[in-house]
Design brief:
By secondary structure, this protein is α/β, with parallel strands linked by helices. It has 2 domains: 5-181 and 221-245, Rossmann fold (3-Layer(aba) Sandwich); 187-219 and 249-286 and 304-322, UDP-galactose 4-epimerase, domain 1 (Alpha-Beta Complex). 40% of the residues lie in helices and 15% in strands. It has helices at 14-25, 43-47, 64-74, 95-116, 150-169, 191-203, 224-235, 253-263, 292-298, 306-322, and strands at residues 5-9, 29-34, 55-58, 78-81, 121-127, 173-178, 181-182, 210-212, 218-219, 222-223, 242-245, 251-252, 272-274. The chain is globular. Bound molecules: NADP nicotinamide-adenine-dinucleotide phosphate and guanosine-5'-diphosphate-alpha-D-mannose (GDD). Guanosine-5'-diphosphate-alpha-D-mannose binds next to helix 6.
Length: 323
């Protein structure tokens, strides 16, 4: 068991909740930056039964002084920067906010670490969205970036800031380039959870139609619970580095829908409708990661198949709606 202390930005998000649970199980004192909202954002921590075990500090990624205060109060040896405006679709409507939170916000966390405890280990939540218009069939750590959204652009800045602080100041700063990862705690705006929730509603007779955008898009989808283990492993290495975390399989949105509907004995074709409202100004057509480096150096491999993931999500939404 560890007696370390960790700070997580984005602790109320999907990954923040799973990472908190993992670190608590390992004996860490877990501190989180809580960006004040008018509505309840603690539901994920409650679902995992850990809302009373983490220590929450008011703060915001756009407010450097609040980040400095959290790092001073926590004495953190590890800092995980998971906070972000993470919905790609919204980033065209809020490009400046997205840049401030996802790009400059990461720089604020790096600066806070440099000022308070430059020996602390830092994790940046980078993303396969940085590959955008893909420059290689299977994307790995050496594949050039070509972001296709304001979100991807902001994340490229944060990624390079992480590399730069490692090279400039010798900080233990790692960037995890994670491909899409989902769970029953996924936000309802993302396509897998939109589908699992709709399938449950349709099965229970509360909805008839599911409206989607580009169902030919392909994603490399894994389970968030598996992916947070990779984040922790990166910070346990003697030297900081960048790692692609993915399953190495890619699937269309349409095929993912087929799995979800079939799980409750329905046919996707009977319920799907295409609505141009959900199309994006520029699309990332296909993502497919090569996680060979993570396997070799971290000993990390995904444990959950797409079918297991999607059925887990549909079952969770059936339970929520029935309850
Ligand atoms: P998420 O569920 O959307 O969580 C985002 C978190 O960031 C929430 O806790 C949110 O707080 C917080 N946040 C938003 N604006 C903030 C601000 N101004 N100051 C402080 N905190 C703020 O995202 P996720 O799926 O857990 O993803 C975690 C990270 O990994 C994100 O950086 C995302 O971009 C990145 N990523 C995700 C995936 C994926 O497939 N899930 C893949 C690659 C990279 P509220 O709860 O108050 O809104
Ligand atoms: N959200 C959504 N809603 N997406 C749809 C819909 C719909 O109705 N219909 C089709 N899609 C397509 C999107 O156009 C995209 O090609 C794909 O489904 C996945 O969309 P999202 O689930 O919103 O995820 P994302 O790939 O844009 O972004 C997620 O993964 C990134 C990693 O690649 C987010 O978690 C990002 O934060 C993350 O960085």
């Amino acid at each position: 068991m560890s007696n370390k202390s960790a700070v997580i930005t984005g602790i109320t998000g999907q990954d923040g909740a799973y990472l908190s649970k993992l670190l608590l199980e390992k004996g860490y004192a877990v501190h989180g930056v809580l960006a004040r909202r008018s509505s309840d954002t603690l539901w994920r921590l409650r679902e995992l039964g850990i809302d009373g075990e983490v220590r929450l500090h008011d703060g915001d990624l756009t407010d450097l002084s609040s980040l400095i205060r959290v790092l001073q109060a926590s004495g953190a040896a590890e800092v995980y920067n998971l906070g972000a405006q993470s919905f790609v679709g919204s980033s065209w409507q809020q490009p400046i906010l997205t840049a401030q939170v996802d790009g400059v916000g990461a720089l604020n966390v790096l600066e806070a670490v440099r000022l308070v405890n430059p020996q602390a280990r830092f994790y940046q939540a980078s993303t396969s969205e940085m590959f955008g218009l893909i420059q290689a069939d299977r994307q790995d750590e050496r594949t050039p970036f070509y972001p296709r959204s304001p979100y991807g652009v902001a994340k490229v800045m944060a990624h390079w800031a992480t590399v730069n602080y490692r090279e400039s100041f010798g900080m233990h700063a790692s960037s995890g380039i994670l491909f899409n990862h989902e769970s029953p705690l996924r936000g309802i705006e993302f396509v897998t959870r939109k589908v699992s929730d709709a399938v449950a509603r349709i099965k229970l007779g509360r909805q008839k139609v599911l409206k989607l955008g580009n169902i030919d898009a392909k994603r490399d989808w894994g389970f968030a619970g598996d992916y947070v283990e990779a984040m922790w492993l990166m910070l346990q290495q003697p030297a900081a580095d960048d790692y692609v975390i993915a399953t190495g399989q890619t699937t269309t949105v349409r095929q993912m829908c087929d799995i979800a509907f079939a799980h409750v004995g329905l046919r996707a074709d009977d319920h799907l409708e295409i609505d141009p409202k959900f199309m994006r100004p520029a699309e990332v057509d296909v993502l497919l990661g090569n996680p060979a480096k993570a396997k070799e150096r971290l000993g990390w491999e995904p444990k959950t198949s797409l079918a297991q993931l999607i059925t887990m999500m549909v079952d969770a939404d059936m339970r929520r709606l029935a309850g």
